[in-house]
Design brief:
Elements: H1 2-44, H2 51-58, H3 64-90, H4 97-131
Length: 139
């Protein structure tokens, strides 16, 4: 019966996690749809639409490279924390050290990948901006 209780607890945890993720995605989609509906009503009523509003609603993220860089730094700084957590847990259960060191190494690689992606996105953004000076609206 102990195995069944642990299985149900794991199922409840992952179910809760899935519900939070799906709820967040659904909320974001509903919010975006409300923005589109507002712009559509403004167009139907004949109001003038400014470029900043259109950029915000269409989601042109001019700071995509910055967001990647922030995410990469957060993940990189979490990696030593996971390693230290593994050390503390190894005082209770010795077999926990190496798996948590592996998770820490994975976090380092993910953080480094995000930082590389930020550099690529920054370079691509500069190339796009330089090659299209005639463009008046956001991408």
């Amino acid at each position: 019966m102990d195995g069944l209780g642990a299985g149900l607890a794991a199922l409840a945890f992952w179910g809760f996690l899935a519900a939070v993720v799906v709820g967040g995605i659904w909320y974001g989609l509903r919010e975006r749809q409300a923005q589109f509906d507002t712009v559509a009503r403004m167009i139907e009523s004949g109001q003038k639409i400014d470029e900043a509003l259109v950029d915000r609603v269409l989601g042109s993220d001019k700071q995509f490279d910055r967001n990647l860089k922030v995410g990469g730094l957060i993940v990189l700084f979490a990696a030593p924390g996971v390693a230290i957590l593994g050390w503390f847990i190894s005082k209770i259960a010795e077999e926990a050290l190496f798996p948590l060191l592996g998770v820490s190494a994975l976090a380092i690689f993910v953080g480094a990948g995000l930082l590389v992606a930020s550099k690529v996105a920054e370079r691509r953004s500069r190339i796009d901006d330089a090659s299209a000076p005639y463009r008046t609206t956001a991408r």
